[in-house]
Specification:
The chain has about 180 residues and is of the alpha/beta class. The chain has a domain of about 120 residues: Rossmann fold (3-Layer(aba) Sandwich), CATH 3.40.50.300. Helices cover about 45% and strands about 10% of the residues. A 5-stranded parallel beta sheet has the order 2-3-1-4-5.
């Protein structure tokens, strides 16, 4: 495992898992959201986003956290392993709520130099609510990744499906770096 993309529904624990994995492998960790989001919640253009993603995936060793389906041709060009964090809907939603509450209270900047922070309004009363996004994408993500794992087009990729926090912990503990 040298070039890894960790995927899963928002709130599933991709970032936490990815950071631990990159630490265990002593390799760079990249969060796709930090490549995508600009200051004041402005989105990067596809050209900007794809260029940033191409740069980080040109390295020989990395852990990349994020979905962004339109980026599959770029991020999976060199990937050797895709790890799907596939916890239950209840667990994923619990984690998403817990993270949102922490972010609202802490007012911690989400991605460096963006000033982007969670707010109660953004989390609960917005069409862009991360909790709503988690609910809307959970089942479609499950169907998509189940299909992708058996698609011949991706036969060069080792797929790993992790279905519980205990399994995630064991996976990282069993890695020989």
């Amino acid at each position: 495992m040298r070039r890894i993309n960790v995927v899963g529904t928002s709130g599933s624990g991709k970032s936490t898992f990815s950071k631990h994995l990159a630490g265990k492998l002593s390799c760079p960790y990249y969060e796709m959201d930090s490549l995508f989001w600009k200051a004041n919640w402005q989105e990067s253009t596809d050209e900007e986003f794809f260029e940033a993603l191409s740069q980080v995936t040109s390295n020989e060793h990395w852990v990349l956290d994020g979905n962004y389906n339109r980026t599959v041709p770029i991020k999976w060009h060199k990937v050797d392993t895709v790890i799907w964090i596939d916890y239950s809907l209840g667990r994923t939603l619990y984690q998403a709520v817990k993270r949102a509450v922490y972010r609202i209270i802490s007012q911690k900047e989400l991605w460096p130099n963006t000033g982007n922070k969670e707010s109660l309004k953004k989390v609960l009363a917005s069409k862009d609510s991360i909790l709503l996004w988690t609910l809307k994408t959970y089942h479609t993500n499950k169907i998509r990744y189940q299909s992708i794992m058996t698609d011949e087009q991706y036969s060069h990729i080792q797929f790993v499906r992790i279905t519980s926090p205990k399994e995630a912990k064991q996976f990282i503990e069993n890695i020989i770096a």
